[in-house]
Design a protein that fits this description.
The chain has four helices and no strands.
């Protein structure tokens, strides 16, 4: 998803403004750079959580040999149920950790998307906003001074 946003992010301001991009003050450049760095940091954190999710971990199971050992017991069904419950309980922490890793990767990926969307909006709407503000200030001054 993020890989699809980068080409749009890079090309959209040039497509809107042509070859000559409007001059930006140092403050606007700092804002855009800050949003970009924030988006990249969120992307890196998302990747770290995703790799934790994909990491191989231990798990417990009841194997065929366990079932064969239970075969001769007088209450084999109860023993099998007990072993299944114990195995399930032993896997609980690992499953909960994997779910937490997935949730964190998703949260950081969502933050990445929002940061790049805001970056794109600021880059594209900065010049129209400044033009609108330059046109509105004299009208407000005239309205306040004329009353």
């Amino acid at each position: 998803m993020i890989a699809a946003i980068f080409p749009v992010l890079v090309s959209l301001p040039k497509d809107l403004y042509g070859d000559e991009l409007p001059n930006m003050g140092t403050g606007w450049k700092a804002v855009l750079l800050g949003l970009f760095v924030l988006g990249v940091l969120y992307l890196v954190r998302s990747g770290i959580w995703a790799f934790r999710t994909l990491a191989v971990s231990t798990h417990n199971r009841i194997d065929a040999t366990d079932i064969v050992h239970l075969w001769g017991e007088p209450d084999a069904n109860s023993a099998l149920i007990r072993d299944l419950l114990v195995t399930t309980r032993m896997n609980r922490d690992g499953v909960n950790a994997k779910v937490a890793y997935i949730k964190m990767a998703h949260a950081f990926l969502l933050r990445t998307f929002i940061a790049f969307a805001i970056l794109l909006l600021v880059a594209v709407l900065r010049q129209p906003f400044i033009t609108l503000l330059d046109a509105a200030v004299p009208m407000v001054r005239a309205a306040v001074g004329g009353s």
